[in-house]
Amino acid sequence: MKTQIIVLSAVALGALAPAASAQQGTVNGAAGGAVTGAIVGGPVGAAVGGVAGAAVGTAIDPPPERVVTYVEQAPAPASPVVVKEKIVVGKPVPSSVVLTPVPDSPKYAYAVVNEQRVIVDPQTRTVVQVVR
Description:
Largest sheet: 4 strands, antiparallel
Number of strands: 4
Distance between the termini: 49 Å
Oligomer: single chain
């Protein structure tokens, strides 16, 4: 019985993946979390694992390489921005930080904060990647 539920959960989530290819990190995280949760806790574990996996999948979805390359090579702003808060992936930058859009990639913007280049989701101001 438990094996059938695990297989059916995995098949159902696998069928959803192509329909949501624009949100690949979320789907992969949800599917992986659901399968792991099902193995550990059955149907309830699958539901909890799917939600947790979706959250993790979205947080670690990196920007395309062309966006990273652009941000690495873009000129730094004339006035440096220094903030007290630590700049962390998954957390928003303060409203005092001016974001510069990445051309041809409206899903991304960048800023130089505390001498670090950061790629940000301009809608939520959430740091997507710290460029090293």
